[in-house]
Each structure stands twice: as C-alpha cells, then as structure tokens.
Amino acid sequence: DVTTARLISLLAENPNGLTIIRDELMGWLNSLNSDYELSARPLFLELWKGAVSYDLARADGREHHLKSGTAAILGGIQPSKLQHYVAEAYSTDRSDGFLQRFLFTYPDVNKKYPKPTPNDFQSYQLGFDAARRAFEFLGCAKFPVDMKGPYGDGFRLLRFSHLAQAEMDKWKESTEALAQELETEDEAFSSFLMKLPKSCFAIALIFHCLENAW
Fold first, then answer.
1. CA-based nearest residue to 101, from 201, 199, 23, 186
2. Are 179 and 164 in contact (CB under 8 A)?
3. Residue 44 and residue 98: Cα distance in Å, rounded?
4. Residues 24-33, buried b or exposed e (16+ Cβ, 10 A)?
5. Which residues of 102-116 are buried (b: 16+ CB within 10 A; e: fewer)?
6. CA–CA distance, 140 with 117 (Å, rounded to integer)
7. Rounded CA separation 173/144 (Å)
8. DSSP 3-state assignment of 4?
9. What gap in Å lies between CA 132 and CA 16, rounded to an integer?
10. Torsion from C-alpha of 120, 202, 53, 88, nearest 10 degrees
C-alpha cells in the first residue's frame, strides 16, 4: 500500500521496475478515487506503457524525476466487485481505458477442487521459492544495452524469431481488424482488443526471462 509520491520515488530508485502485489485489489482501486490521490490513476495509465518519464514536485520542495518507470500490478478481486469498473469503462466520462489495461483469469467454476493436502502445501512452497529465486536473479541481472533512451538510460532489445514474428503479425492484424469493426458497436471491448497485443508481447517477454533465469 503506497502513495503516489512514494511510488514515484521508489520507481526512481528501481529503474528495472516494481511489482505491486495486493491480495484484494479493491482497496487499491478505491485509493485511486480518493481526493488525496488524484494523480494516481493518470500515473498508472502512463506506467502501463513502460519506460515512462514522470516529474513530481513535493510540497516540501523535494523533486523526483522518473526516467524509466515500469510497474506491474498483481492481485485478486471478486467478479461482483469488478462490475462497477466494467460499467465505468462503458461510461462517457470515465472511459479512459483503465480496466482494459488488465488481463483477468478465472477458475473453472464447474470443477470441484479437493481440499489441499500437506503435499499440496509443500508444492506451493516450492513454487514460491522458485518465484523468489527468479525475481532475485532477474533483479540483479545486467543486460547488455542495445539502445539509449532520451534521458541516457539503456535498453535491451529482444525480438521474436522470424517464424514467431510472422505468426504474431498475423494475429495482431486480425485482432486490430476486429477491434476496428467493434469500435462503434462496443467501444470498451474494442479498446481492450487494441491493447491486447502489447499485453501479450509483455507476457512473452516475461516467459522468456523466466525460462532463461537459471
């Protein structure tokens, strides 16, 4: 649970980015609508792009200059609680594409899950340990720099293979074509489809990093 000002200062100290983990996302979502956090929602809209530049002047005179802010948000939310934000995405005054920047997954509601056993908890712990090691490795990794950003920060460029790029181009074109068809009929879903390729490219990058983290 972090304020906007503190988040910007933490991002400035961590150029590789941060992950915000909230067990219940409703608390975080509600904070974005509070009177004292009016700059929070616009900031997160910008952070979705990645490598965003942001300046913040504090009331005490301190200034924070963010060269390359990247943040990931992970958490859970009940579908009934999400309905308000779905309706918001279809309204004219709050349709800023906020909800469309998220990818949601749902459990199979028709499947009955047995009660966890001690072996299951051991498996969970092994998974948590592996995730922690991956984060630690990637957080300390030094990637070669392929290009410089406008503020002198370095970036590593990763590309799909020629075969994968051809498949991704084909999928991206069909997805964007469908989004254009739905632009007048379902503007909110069209906005989600337009943002979907970027989200999938980011997931592909995450998988690549995890597979090569050892």
1. 199
2. no
3. 8
4. ebbebbebbe
5. beeeeeeeeeeeeee
6. 35
7. 31
8. helix
9. 16
10. -80
Q: Are 45 and 97 in contact (CB under 8 A)?
A: yes
pTM listed for this prediction: 0.74
Q: Check: CB of residue 159 under 8 Å from CB of residue 165.
A: yes
- pLDDT level of residue 165 (50, 70, 90 thresholds): very high
| Percent with pLDDT over 70 in the chain | 92
> How crowded is residue 17: how many other Cβ atoms within 10 Å of its Cβ?
15
- Cα–Cα distance, 188 to 85 (Å, whole number): 11
Tokens, residue 108? 């199979």
Place of tokens 């924070």: 64
Q: How far apart are CA 87 and CA 95, in angstroms?
A: 9
55-101 pLDDT tens trace = 766 667 777 777 777 888 889 998 888 888 888 888 767 778 888 99
Instruction: Report CA 13 to chain centroid distance, whole Å.
Output: 19
For the chain, how big is the Rg over CA atoms in Å? Answer: 20
10 Å Cβ neighbour count for 174?
10
